[in-house]
Amino acid sequence: MLKGKAFILMGVSSTGKTSVGTAVAQQLGLKLIDGDDLHPRANIVKMASGFPLNDQDRTPWLERINDAAFSLESKSETGIIVCSALKKKYRDQIRQGNQNIHFLFLNGSFELVLERMKARKGHFMKAEMLKSQFDTLEIPTAEENDVTFIDIDHCFEEVVSLCVKAIQAKLNTLA
């Protein structure tokens, strides 16, 4: 029997994680967990005040992401968890104790992401903090063989389609 599976939709702010994740989850009938909803209050207040998070701030948040992935696996559910997972050590923390994790990295240039960020409304992340996200980002290397790169320099529907195909391909290899 196929155990639960967590697909972590990762990338810097404004790569479309929540919008794409919502569309993909709806299309495939998967559970969606938005990592932004798992941030402790102190992190939300800090980001809303225009300050980037540091590793210490992220630790309890990453524990919550790890627990959500574990919950999916233990309940034999498949779902998408939206979270930035910018550094390898963050991804490793999410992987810890979880057997069925796969990352989809929404990858785009600083200029493209900045343009999209400026068009957003009602999000606690400020455009000025994008540079800190890119500075923090450690692009996955070949040693992280559980990561699929998704180029976001396409229309929304194409990015969703690329994610759907990647998830279906991964699920087919597990069946």
Automatic annotation (TrEMBL):
GO biological process: D-gluconate metabolic process
GO cellular component, one term: cytoplasm
SUPFAM superfamilies: P-loop containing nucleoside triphosphate hydrolases
Key words, A-Z: ATP-binding, Gluconate utilization, Kinase, Nucleotide-binding, Transferase
Keyword Kinase: yes
Oxidoreductase is among the record's keywords: no
Pathway membership: Carbohydrate acid metabolism
GO function terms (MF aspect): ATP binding; gluconokinase activity
Catalytic activity as recorded in UniProt: D-gluconate + ATP = 6-phospho-D-gluconate + ADP + H(+)
Pfam (any one): SKI
Domain of life: Bacteria
InterPro entries referenced in this protein's UniProt entry, alphabetically: P-loop_NTPase, Shikimate/glucono_kinase, Therm_gnt_kin
The enzyme's E.C. designation: 2.7.1.12
Protein family according to the UniProt entry: Belongs to the gluconokinase GntK/GntV family.
Protein's name according to its UniProt entry: Gluconokinase
Species annotation: [Haemophilus] felis
Lineage, highest ranks first: Bacteria, Pseudomonadati, Pseudomonadota, Gammaproteobacteria, Pasteurellales
GN (gene name): idnK
